[in-house]
Design brief:
By secondary structure, the protein is mostly beta strands. It has one domain: Beta Barrel (Lipocalin). It is globular and about 40 Å long.
Length: 119
Amino acid sequence: MATPDFSGSWNFQTKESGFGFDLVQTGDKIEGYHNSVVDGGRRVDTVLKEFDSPPSITGTIVNGVAKVKFKSGYGDGEGDAEMKIVKGKLEWKITNSTGQHYFPEECVLTKMKPKTEKK
């Protein structure tokens, strides 16, 4: 079974909230940074690579499922989640968490098209 490619920018959005992350996959290892905005922008939970922060999402892919640990950029929240790619979309589901965070319990994210450079 081929390992799915989790690398890239993924996004989930509703009228009042948004969640996304940028992931890099190397073999069966995965890491990335997240951005979560809820309550119409009143709560933001973000960890960005641009600020030299350690990755907020790290884990390993086993049998096509990424088992990851996540760490909040808002509070002391952290936990475990599973990600899998189904029909080109990424399914996110928290399996365990503690503390305060604004990661969604579960959602389906769409892969964003890479930005093309202007010449």
